[in-house]
Amino acid sequence: MIKAYHRVSSDEAYEAILSIGSILPAAYRIDPDQAVEMCEKELGDIGFQTTEARRGVARLLDERVREVIELQERESVRSARAPATMLFCADLLAGDFMNVFLSPGGFTSASLARGWPLSGFGFDAEELVRRGAEYRPQDLLFSFRHAVAKTMRTGLGEQESYKAVKQELERQRHGTLYEDAALEALKVFDDPAHDPTSHKKYDWPSNAEVVWTGPLPLDLAVEVWGSGELLETRVA
Fold first, then answer.
1. Which residue ranges make up each domain of the chain?
2. Pick from 46, 63, 33: which is nearest to 54 by CA?
3. 10-14, 101-105, 106-110, 209-213: which range is least confident on average?
């Protein structure tokens, strides 16, 4: 079995996931006002941007935040959000707020470097792919950030930059794999001699990601880790 792990950023988030019974995407957990504030700060730090291009990106931000608000109202989760883990402006603009991210490979001590507890949940990566998850050979955050910065520096008008940033963000997904292609790519993690995580106890295990859209039920988990200990092993 090739496993993929979702690590949590705090004990609070860990307990919330156990209580809810699923790992919720950021869209269920973030405060829309705080997301806007965070995003405006990140966008403001991009140098050499033009006013009109900034407005086009801001238009996409408004659109994404409305999607988050509509989902939270529809799912009745606005008053009972679980603690958020990590979400960046580029993720929000790219629409990645509806996804749960997992790292294929072994459960390592890497999260200690971020001040996170050694807690999380392991899943059968191949089973998730068979159920519709996608496989990204690398984390797209930096590619998303580059796409946003590139658009804001173009000098395009508001409408043109709005279209351009959506197209640039979508273009970054071209290497994403699904179904049989994803299963084939995951095989690298099945061989200890070639598994990029097998000798990386203290580094972040892999830049690759298994991406699940929507809440990820804990019923599908095959391992539960708490404070660095394997607490439970399940049969998928």
1. 3-233
2. 46
3. 106-110
With CA atoms as reference, report the closest residue to 134 among 72, 169, 185, 91: 185
Confidence at 84, pLDDT banded by 50, 70, 90 = very low
Name the nearest CA neighbour of 7 among 119, 134, 166: 119
Strand order in the sheet with 134-136: 134-136, 209-213, 99-104, 3-7, 120-124, 221-226, 229-233
pTM: 0.88
Joined tokens for residue 218: 């804990």
Query: Strand, coil or helix: what is 61?
Result: helix
Could you tell me the CA-to-CA distances from 96 to 1, 106, 230 in Å, in that order?
A: 27, 24, 29
| Cα–Cα separations (whole angstroms), residue 225 to 14, 86, 117, 126, 195 | 10, 19, 10, 20, 21
E strands in the chain: 3-7, 22-23, 99-104, 120-124, 134-136, 209-213, 216-217, 221-226, 229-233
